[in-house]
Amino acid sequence: MAAAAERGRDGSCHFQRSRLIWMVAIIFGMVVLGWVTLWPSTIPYSYLGLFGTFLNYLVEHHHKWVCYMFWISWLIHIVEALYGIKICQAKGITDPAVQFQWFVQTLLFGYASFGLLVSYKPAAKKQY
Questions:
Q1: pLDDT at 8
Q2: Model's pTM, two decimal places?
Q3: How far apart are CA 8 and CA 4, in angstroms?
Q4: Can you tell me the mean pLDDT for 30-48?
Q5: Taking Cα atoms as reference points, which of 77, 70, 85 lies closest to residue 37?
Q6: Is there a smaller number of Cβ atoms within 10 Å at the N or the C end of the chain?
Q7: Dist CA 79 CA 101 (whole Å)
C-alpha cells in the first residue's frame, strides 16, 4: 500500500483526463469528417439545415481536400500519441498502464490530451 502511495507522489502514475468540452468537440469533428470522407452518399443533407448545405458543398466541390484533411488529422493524432509515450518516459511517468492511457487519450483527442502532457511538470526530486 505504501509503495502505491509513493508511486502516486513521485509522478510515475500521473494521468489527467482532457476536458469534456474538447473531447466532445473533437469526437464530433472527427466523426463528421470521417462521414463526409468515407460515406458522403449516406448523409441526410436536407435534414441538417445550413450545416447540411455546407457539408454538401464540401462534398460536391472540395471532397479531395476533405479526404486529405481526414487522413492527415489521423496521421497527426497517431504521431502525437507515439510522441506522447516518449514524453511520458521523459517526465517520469513509468507505469505502462498510465502510458497506455495517455496513448489512447492522445490518439482519440489529439492536442487536447497532448497539451496536458506537455504542460505537466513533475515534482522535483528531493536531494538528500
A1: 54
A2: 0.83
A3: 6
A4: 95
A5: 70
A6: C
A7: 15
| Length of the chain (residues) | 128
pLDDT tens across 77-109, in order?
Answer: 999 999 999 999 999 999 999 999 999 999 999
| Amino acid (1-letter code) at residue 30 | M
Which distant-in-sequence residues (6+ apart) come within 8 Å of 79 by Cβ?
none
Rg (CA), the chain: 20
Transcribe the chain into DSSP letters: -HHHHHHHHHTTT---PPPHHHHHHHHHHHHHHHHHHH-GGG--GGGGHHHHHHHHHHHHHHHHHHHHHHHHHHHHHHHHHHHHHHHHHHTT---HHHHHHHHHHHHHHTHHHHHHHHH--PPPPPP-
Q: Measured between alpha carbons, how far is 74 from 14 in angstroms, rounded to an integer?
A: 25
The three cell numbers of residue 15 are 494521468
pLDDT digit string, tens, across residues 16-34: 999 999 999 999 999 999 9
